[in-house]
């Protein structure tokens, strides 16, 4: 009998911040300074988010096409500011995930999984790897919003839900300690996520037109 191949689980934990407290991290001039800091190339990201009458959103699932590639993020805990996700990038896996929530979902990405476009915007992303593993990003969207995140990722082979929760809980604790240690880099204030800011911006735009 052939062994069962388990799909790797990509776990992502992130904590948002409203903006950097310094003009750039490149100088690494705070106290204490990062143990190491490596800048990544600035990226332009084009996102299209899909849903159907907010059914996926209400189930804690986000499906998007990022620069032409499909992704699904499944919330495993936290909230809109302090989030824990499992990420799926395989179209068949995304179709199965959507199909568990929405009947008659499309079987492949070419049919948008039977979903409808709900948001579309472009992001300019600056990113750094601090202390060799923490990814700090600053995102500036084309509708005038800015938000940042500190992220950690882990890949596991066939973990149980209990194992996922344990690992993501540990990752979240490490991010919290990291941000407290380097508090000089992150401005205080309540961050607003991209989609929330996008819909607020679209509502303001519609109000101005009426």
Automatic annotation (TrEMBL):
Superkingdom classification of source: Eukaryota
GO molecular function: magnesium ion binding; thiamine triphosphate phosphatase activity
Protein's GO biological process: thiamine diphosphate metabolic process; thiamine metabolic process
InterPro entries: CYTH-like_dom_sf (IPR033469), THTPA (IPR039582), ThTPase_euk (IPR012177)
SUPFAM superfamilies noted in UniProt: CYTH-like phosphatases
UniProt xrefs under PANTHER family: THIAMINE-TRIPHOSPHATASE
Name of protein: CYTH-like domain-containing protein
Species whose genome carries this gene: Cercophora newfieldiana
């Amino acid at each position: 009998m052939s062994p069962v191949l388990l799909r790797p689980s990509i776990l992502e934990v992130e904590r948002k911040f409203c903006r950097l407290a310094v003009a750039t991290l490149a100088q690494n001039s705070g106290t204490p300074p990062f143990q190491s800091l490596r800048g990544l190339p600035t990226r332009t990201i084009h996102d299209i988010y899909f849903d159907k009458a907010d059914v996926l959103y209400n189930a804690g699932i986000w499906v998007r096409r990022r620069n032409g590639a499909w992704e699904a993020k499944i919330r495993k805990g936290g909230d809109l500011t302090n989030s824990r996700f499992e990420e799926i990038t395989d179209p068949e896996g995304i179709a199965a995930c959507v199909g568990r929530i929405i009947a008659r979902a499309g079987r492949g990405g070419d049919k948008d999984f039977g979903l409808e476009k709900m948001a579309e915007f472009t992001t300019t992303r600056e990113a750094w790897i601090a202390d060799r593993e923490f990814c700090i990003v600053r995102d500036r969207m084309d509708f005038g919003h800015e938000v940042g995140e500190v992220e950690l990722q882990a890949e596991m082979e066939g973990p149980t839900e209990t194992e996922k929760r344990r690992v993501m809980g540990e990752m979240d604790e490490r991010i919290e300690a990291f941000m407290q240690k380097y508090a000089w880099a992150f401005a205080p204030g309540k961050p607003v996520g991209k989609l929330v800011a996008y819909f607020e911006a679209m509502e303001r735009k519609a109000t101005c037109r009426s």
